[in-house]
Amino acid sequence: MAVDLFYFLVFPGLLFAGITGGFLSWFDRKITARVQFRKGPPLLQPFYDFFKLLLVKETILPMHVSPIIFLLAPIFSVFWATMAGVFILLPLFNITTGFMCDLLVIF
């Protein structure tokens, strides 16, 4: 049940948010360029920028740091912020549990 809910609600929502964010970024850059009497970027420019950042750019690491911790820290911070939001909004969905301690949160 939870997996079906993820596939039908969360995944298309994340995909839609990414595409909409890219489009709105392009629209903002296009309007800014038109105000300055320039042509502006093509429609797919935000996606070109994303793939350039993902595939081409070099990762710069500070000296004397653990590369694993340095690279995973943003992922962990977003994960824990998302988990906090999920557990704060969880009572709004009125999910029934099997017994009193069905949901265990470890901090």
Question: How is this fold's topology laid out?
Answer:
Blueprint: H1 2-35, H2 45-55, H3 67-89
| Alpha-carbon Rg, integer | 20 Å
Give unreliable regions as ranges: none
Helix content: 55-70%
Describe the sheet with the most strands: none
Number-wise, the strands total 0
Percent of sequence in beta strands: under 5%
Task: Return the domain count.
Answer: 1
Q: Structural class, please?
A: mainly alpha
How does this model look, in words?
This protein has 107 residues and is mainly alpha-helical. It is flat, with a radius of gyration of 20 Å. The protein has one domain (2-93). The protein is built from three helices and no strands.
List keywords for this structure.
single chain; 3 helices; 0% strand; mainly alpha; 107 residues
Summarize this entry quickly:
With 107 residues, the protein is mainly α.
